[in-house]
Every structure is written in structure tokens, then in C-alpha cells.
Amino acid sequence: MDILMYIGGGITVATLFFFFRLRRRFNAALNVFFARYTYDRLNRNDKVKVKEEAKALVMAKGLKIDGYEHDVERFGWYAVAMNSLGIPSKMPENPNWHKVKNPSKILKKHDMILVKARNLIKQHYSIDIQI
């Protein structure tokens, strides 16, 4: 009987780990689209501030990159930068950013979770954001 409890507990822990990780990735994907939408609506001065803050945050993490590998990574860092600067998301009904520690690691360029997030935004807000 004890073995069944250990197996059940292990399965429960693994399931919770999977769902929490999936939620973090989905929130990071939403941030990418929110950042693209918001960044496109900022004035030139704010865009410069966001770029500089994103670069400073990347350097503070100890990452040695000359540029972003793709737009998913770039707008992931822009979301973190806009949150740091106090710039709210311009996405309707979603003025807040999701907490993401390192956008470079959490999502890849062709991650399927990006398709799900994009479709959700398109369905709920009728906004089609291209990344």
C-alpha cells in the first residue's frame, strides 16, 4: 500500500510541475504578444527607453548577446523592460505584465504555445499580432 502512495504522490508532483511550467510558458507567450502590441503604440522616446532598459536587463542577467536571436526573444525582453519602466500593456483589459525571469530561456522561436496565445488574443480581442 505504501508503494501505491509513493507512486501516486510522484505522479501528482510530476503533473503539478508540468502544469506550472506550461502556465509559465503561456504567460511568457502572452507577454511577447502584449509587448509587440504595446511597443508598436509607443512614441519614439519611449521606444528608445524600452530598448535601453531591455539591453540593461539582459546585461544584468549576465547574458552575452549582441542582438536577439528572434522577435520572440526580443519582445520577451521588451515586456520585462516595460514592466520595469512602469509602462502598462496597451492590450485591452490587460494592463499588467506577467512575471518572467529570463525570456531567452522560456520560449523558442517556433514554440506551439505561441500559436495558442496568438489564437486566444485573436479570438477574444479580434487583434491579429504577428511575431
How do the helices and strands line up, and which of them pair or pack?
Layout: H1 2-39, H2 44-60, H3 71-85, H4 103-106, H5 112-125
> What order do the helices and strands follow?
HHHHH
Overall shape: globular
Please identify the structural class as seen in this structure: mainly alpha
Low-confidence stretches: none
What percentage of the residues does DSSP assign to strands (E)?
under 5%
Give the % helix. 55-70%
Between the first and last Cα atoms, what is the distance in angstroms? 52 Å
Number of helices: 5
Summarize the structure.
The chain is built from 5 helices and no strands. The chain has helices spanning 2-39, 44-60, 71-85, 103-106, 112-125. Helix 1 crosses helix 3 and helix 2 (44-60) packs across helix 3.
Tell me about this structure.
The protein has 131 residues and is mostly helical. It has one domain. Helices cover 67% and strands 0% of the residues. It has five helices and no strands. α1 packs across α5. The longest helix has 38 residues. The radius of gyration is 17 Å and the shape is globular. The model has no long low-confidence stretch (mean pLDDT 92).
